[in-house]
Fold this protein.
Amino acid sequence: MSRHAAPRRASTPPPSALPADLPAALTAAGPAPADTSAARAAAAQAITGDGGSVAATGRRRLRRALPGLLLAFVIAAVVVLGLLTRTDADTTPLSPGNGTPTGARAVAQVLEDEGVEVVHARTLADAEAARARLGGATLFFSDPNGWLNEEQLSSLNRSFPSRVLAAPSEPQLLVLAPEILPAGPAEDARGTVRAGCTREEARAAGEITGGGQLYSAPVECFNSPAADGGTGASYAAVGGTVVLGNPGILTNGTIEEAGNASLALSTLGAAESLIWYQPTTADLAGATGPPANPLQLLPDWVNTLMLWLLGCALLAMLWRGRRLGPLAVEPLPVLVSAAETAEGRARLYQGSRAVRHAAANLRAATLSRAAARLRLPPSSARAAVVQAVAQKTGRRPEDVHSLLDGPPPSTEKDLARWAQQLLDLEKEINNS
């Protein structure tokens, strides 16, 4: 093995003059320091059972944990900011308590200013309780998510003969207003639509914002072309039921446009009280009919998308799978035994006369193995390891301290003898 150590001094004895067992004693030693001052600095460090100083071990573990700590800090900051900025404000679209552009607080406040009592019901039970208390109240019903089943809709139909429906779906119309049929979405959501009928509240409004859903009914107002080529009305009525195909005219953001406010106030303020009912998931618990199939709630394009994704996955498996083959076994060019490597490294220490550094590494290796044998943490302090070794072997603590925490040897002869003492101590630990 070629040597790359520092040049020998003139007084360096030949290898034959050195103790024969020195290379074996230096087996556990690490790479040689660049100079004697670096060796003294390395030997002066407090080496613990894991071969490194307590400070170095702490810094190493801190570096490993730093990404996780940063991630935890970011998550904690987001949670704290969310808690600090969280408000209990109503953000439900068309809610009479929502002050955002999608809410309907403005029209609800104007109705209350005109003497109409507005009750916001969040469940069917609340709506029916308010109906029993108020008597002949108008119901405003908005359920775009379809939370109510047929039985609940039937109960609503019996309880409220006068009602305003906001863009109802076909299943809702079949129960609440079977004479009114859906005609599809409006072709153009921009601009305004004129009344075009003789109904009093529609004529007073003149025109409203276009868009939303269109319907076909005995009484039709604000007709416009539908997206499928037909026509329909944004305002449909039959008996005591009124359908608003574009409930967006009630929102704070558009209530002041065209005749939206006039139509909203005249339609919702026809009675002395108004029950504003928007079903929520709480109504699902009160449903007694069979539960809806979740797959039926998915749009039609989901099945097509799933089939397409499945085909893509199969193609990807075929594409990547055909590239896989058997593992290629390649023999190593040369095998070097661990003993030969350790002996060569020991010769390098011997050539550079790094006695103190070699002693420090031998001691660190002994401390590490002793700590593991005695089931102590790898970062245990020397004093703890010394105390445990003394109790295990029965030696005096002073003798163990001189070996594991005392001054290191200064000559190669003392190093060989001191290394043998460390080996003897390890044997006692293993055998006791």
In short: The CA atoms of residues 306 and 420 lie 72 Å apart. The longest strand covers residues 231-238.
